[in-house]
Amino acid sequence: MYLAYIDESGCTGALANGGSKSFVLGCLLVRSSQWSQTFDAVLGYRRYIREEFGLRLRDEIKANNLLHNRGGFRELALSEQSRHSIYRGALRLVPKIEAKAFAVVIRKEFLQGGDPHEWAWRFLLQRLERLATTSGAQVMVIHDEGQADEIRRLARKARRAGVAGSAFGSGVVQRPFDRLIDDPVSRNSQQSLLLQVADLIAYAAFRRVYPAPSTRKHPVVPTAMWDELGVARMAEVNQRSGGPSPGIVTWPRQERAP
């Protein structure tokens, strides 16, 4: 069985009202049989961060905190280079623990209708369904708190009558996600080290699609940060649709912009 840890980056609000250009879901996939080893490895990295930089174990390592020295980073006032090093180390850990990662980036600037949140979850659940079907494994979804009722509705819909775009021509094919275990589990990311990694995956995908401003001499999250995931990137999720990098599903694709 796979445990799929999901966290988001960006917001669903309209660009005209100051909303972000995109809404992103980052996914960290861990085999249940390897969960203990995975958790111990992430915990070991957190202990290293505590010894090296002074960040407490209970403080969240999330993209927003690293970018702006917020949360537990506020008192430490770390340099951009130090925060870059922490971020990079977390992503480099993913292939070492034999976990997998992918992301869904909804390009709100090109979206002509629908809710970015629903689009993102629809594509993410489709990719998880394909993984489960081709591997013969089951999947449990664990996500950060927020919109739990809506996520549960979308997951139940995918389980009953999931649909996906046909790989050949137009139309859709019916693919019920019958290997999805129970309803998605909502958790506070502050209490989950693995959800925090999913958050870093989400923002790294955003920066791969929307490059970091060139005004920063040492950006915390440069455009190439996504590539630090290496072999952990799930190329199969966008091997037919294409995209900026293996493991990143983008929608709408830019060529479909109005």
Please describe what this structure looks like.
The structure is a single chain. The chain is an alpha/beta fold and 258 residues long. It is 36% helix and 18% strand. It has 6 helices and 8 strands, in the order E-E-H-H-H-E-H-E-H-E-E-E-H-E. Strand 5 (163-165) and strand 6 form a beta hairpin. Helix 1 runs antiparallel to helix 3 and helix 4 crosses helix 5. The longest helix has 20 residues, at 116-135.
Biggest sheet strand order reads 7-4-1-2-3-8
Strand tally: 8
**Integer average pLDDT:** 91
Distance between the ends: 41 Å
The largest sheet, given as strand count, sense and whether it forms a barrel, is: 6 strands, mixed
* Outline type: globular
- Described by its quaternary structure, the protein is single chain
**Strand coverage percent:** 15-25%
- Total domain modules: 1
Indicate the structural class. alpha/beta
| CATH-level-2 architecture | 2-Layer Sandwich
> Helix and strand succession?
EEHHHEHEHEEEHE
Level of helix content?
25-40%
Annotation field: number of helices: 6
CATH topology: Nucleotidyltransferase, domain 5
Low-pLDDT ranges: 166-170
CATH class reads: Alpha Beta
**What's the CATH superfamily, by name?**
Ribonuclease H-like superfamily/Ribonuclease H
What is the C-alpha radius of gyration, as a whole number of Å?
18 Å
